[in-house]
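Here is one chain, start to finish.
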Amino acid sequence: MEFCLRLGDDCLILSHRLSEWTGHAHDFEEDVALANLALDLLGQARNLLSYAGEIEGLGRDEDALAYWRDDREYRNSLLVEQPNGDFAMTMVRHLFFSTYQVALYQGLLDSTDPTLAAIAGKGVKEARYHRDHATLWVLRLGAGTAESHRRATAAVTALWPLVDELFEEDDLLRRLVGSGVAPNPQGLSAEWNIHVGSTLQQANLERPQVVGRSGGRSGLHSEHLGHLLAEMQHLHRSHPDASW
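Its structure:
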């Protein structure tokens, strides 16, 4: 269950972040694109959280897991809960996450857990589109004007310390890797570095030399998650018995 929560919470929280751009992007086409990226991630979150509830066996469905947990119970990475900032920040964050997600889903295609393999089979197609979309924008921003380059540089510098958490190993992952359920995080990291490293090089953006931060996987989040959940969960908690 814990592994499904990690993956599902990543998707759910980033979906909400991207949905915050609706009506605020710089042009209509990108407004629609960001909304569609958010919907893709929301669909993945539903599948993963639904499966987490099934494994738990306590009667909690995806809605219960999304709306009735507090921030310390969430297992998403720190990267996905960061505020959108400007468009460069959003695109760099999405490049970092979607590149990780492509490698993750490709690894899960061979999982000994058939449900996870099936979720990955659908999700990897969406993740590849997300990665391509973010890659094109990071290239445009990094190799564009002096101002777009400055903003892209600031985004890479701010978000780079949060990347290592995506590939951290703990006892849970070691057990899942050993049983063939999950792919080896070291392999995912190698794939991630190839694509992201090439993209940054082409965009004239430097890889920062900074110390990584973590905590999200164990429920130790930034203050940003609490504010996000207050907004995301408000309606459901205010009217728990409402129906459409």
